[in-house]
Amino acid sequence: MAHVKRDRAALLKRTRRLKGQVEAVERAINEGVECDDVLQQLAAVRGAANSMMIEVLEGHAREHLGARSPGELDVLLTVIRRYLR
Question: pLDDT digits over 25-80, tens only?
């Protein structure tokens, strides 16, 4: 997990941003905001979580699997990025 340690500051920044988005969903629900607005906020949370997942997964794959076959690894990561977006 050296890539997580190396990218710690950026990952923590993303985590804090994601936490703020989830808190905004909670506030919206507590305030009785319309469901379409809550759904929009939830979509933003999902997008942020998926982007963070891609970043961590890509670092993991490149660090732990990249030496095996870099070309195949790029194909795999492309498929994963498409799936998660």
Answer: 999 999 999 999 999 999 999 999 999 988 888 888 878 776 567 688 888 888 88
Where does residue 78 fall: left (phi above 0), alpha (psi -120 to 50 degrees), or beta otherwise? Answer: alpha
Domain, as residue range, for 77: 2-84
| Through-space distance between the first and last CA atoms of the chain, rounded to whole angstroms | 24
Query: Where do we find the tokens 């629900």?
Result: 29
CATH code for the domain of 61: 1.20.58.1000
How many domains are there within the chain? 1
In degrees, rounded to 5, the angle at the alpha carbon of residue 55 between the alpha carbons of residues 82 and 52 is 90
